[in-house]
Amino acid sequence: MGTTTTPTPRPDWSLTPRGTVSATAQGALALAALASIGDLTGLNPIWGGAATAAGALGTVVVSAHHDHGPASLLYRLGCWLGAGAWWTYTLATTPWNLNTFAALGIGALTAGLLAPLGRHTPRAPRRPGTALVLRHTSRIGAEWEARIQRVCRLRVTVTDVTMWATRTGYDVHLDLPGAGSTLAQISGAADALATDARLPEGCGVEVGPGMHRAAVVLRVSTVNRLEEEVPFPPLTTSASITDPVEIGEYRNGDVVQVPMRQASALVIGQTGSGKTILLNVLTSGVARCRDALVWHIDLNGGSLSQMWLAPWLDGRTDRPAVDWAASTPAEALDMALAALRIAKDRKTSARKLKIAADTTLMPVSPDLPEIVIFLDEGAEAVSPGDRSVRELREALEEIQRIGRDSAVRIVASSLRSTSDVLPPMIKKMSHVRIAMYVQDQSELGLMYEHNRAVNVADLPGPGCGFVQIGQATPRPFKGQYMLPSTVISAAVQIAAVRPELDERAQRFAGRAYADRYERMHAAFTDHDTDDAEGYERAIPAAPVAPARHLTVLPGGGGAEAWADPFDLARHRPAAPAPTSAAAWPEPRRPILRAEQIHPVNPAPQTRPVPPIMARALAAFAAADAERLHSAELADALGLSQTELADALRPYGIAPLEQPFKRSGTRARGYALEDFRVIAGGHTPGSQARVTPGHSAL
Ligand SMILES: Nc1ncnc2c1ncn2[C@@H]1O[C@H](COP(=O)(O)OP(=O)(O)OP(=O)(O)O)[C@@H](O)[C@H]1O
């Protein structure tokens, strides 16, 4: 058994204080020694004052550096000032009397008793980003912290609140508390949070990821912007399919950008939800690209393709804007099989191109364009229950499976997303999923796998929808509003500049593709309007830059020859000119501005003023105003703003582009002049009367 030896502790002769008492005693003795030396050497008291000031300043700087708390700083400052004052006093007088040493003793005792205050106590940790929260938004941040605690039982930290540029809402940035909390817990409670915040009807809370896994962004809308119209912007034709297609706006004013180079898309929506208008916007977004072609499968009586083909059917363009449109299941099958052959061929034939471009994705170009097949309400036509269309369905499904790299993509639309009408594969393979206005929550549930962030209450009406891109949370948006006249002028513009299908693909597409124009002409001319004269009037003679000038065509005749409201609607301003003026057709009739025309004598007979015009004119008269805000006019006519816009659209009357101020409020609205013109009144200073083909815009 061995013995253990305990090492003898070595004596510690250092002057380092062992505790509060020794530190206090050492301090007092050192001070007394300094006072004695000062007295013996006759040191000037000014050095005492200087040493005190330097010590106090050093204490402040060092405390700030070590982030000492306020109590610690005050204690250290107090010690320096007390000791310094005592020493300076002894230099000015003498330390050798009882009172002076009594003061030193009391000072040392006080410093010893208060010593715990001097310990290093760092400030309370600052909540990340709290300093960034501006004063006027910090109240909002505090409210949301309390709300999330109440509704989700999570103690989150709001790090920032930013107002939207549109002033119609704000973003709340927050950090989750950890301890197993996830973004899903908050997004699942989005509806409850919106209710708790008492947001107005149609407004809501969108929950999205932040900069890291524990960061969350709440997009809170406080004004229902989805009720406002998003006009279709002027069309440009130099885009590439590798750029996303813009289809509308989110609540915060951000543009909805849909990637179309690699993604297939699915659009659902009940009748009247705005599907066709959205498909028109998507068609223009793809067809305007220098490296993409649109093919339509339109088994729905031509409701999608008709207007895109109209300028070509009418002989105004040499080729249609839409490269191929199928109106029968047989031709749709020919199209799908042709696209499939092209996709398969490109898989191997594009290999050299990929190596040359050193890219893993087939590079598209005007010489090798992407093909996007639009299937208008055709999902039903390829529904799983229908055996007769099995081949078409299988071909489309295979394109979705293999056509990403080969740049053959599908945009399918359907009334519903249930598996009895929509092949599950088409839904599964659609990277972009858009659900236009529906009344039934279960429809949205089926489309977005019952994502709890998706609520039918967030869609105030037609033209609104949810869009989901990839795995992102579906977000409400308002689609761009594309009018028939805009489609037709876009078709003219696109037909002039779009690419042709590459020769190799044409060979793989076969005879069905080579003969397509004849069949399209026959099929879609059949659907054309009998009123050729009226239809010609609807086609813009030449594109004009959007401007709210009164444009009147010369003419005469009786009131019976007035333009149909639908024609008037189609004479709205068109998009800007295509790349070359030579591409434009000759105008049928010269277009003159109001100030350029001579008065026309009023016709003896006049058509009765439409009731909506009469009531609107009365509302302007009652308000004694030349302009009225949309809300005011809608109220006066007992309509909602959307109903008012819908009622006036056939007459070509739309709100003024620029908002204006009335009673201190700035908003968009209508001009009396527009109603006067349509109602057959006289524009100020003019005797011009609207005659057939006249446009009020
Ligand atoms: N983006 C929009 N902005 C404003 N209103 C819109 C918009 N989209 C659609 N609407 C309104 O909804 C109506 C129906 O639109 P659209 O014809 O596109 O619907 P749909 O779903 O194709 O209907 P259907 O299946 O019956 O043809 C339009 O006449 C218009 O009043």
TrEMBL record:
Binding site for ATP: 269-276
SUPFAM superfamilies associated with the record: P-loop containing nucleoside triphosphate hydrolases
InterPro entries according to UniProt: FtsK_dom, P-loop_NTPase
Keywords on record: ATP-binding, Membrane, Nucleotide-binding, Transmembrane, Transmembrane helix
Transmembrane feature ranges: 46-66, 73-92, 98-117
Positions of the FtsK domain: 242-445
Protein name, entry field: S-DNA-T family DNA segregation ATPase FtsK/SpoIIIE
Species per Swiss-Prot/TrEMBL record: Streptosporangium brasiliense
Taxonomic classification: Bacteria, Bacillati, Actinomycetota, Actinomycetes, Streptosporangiales
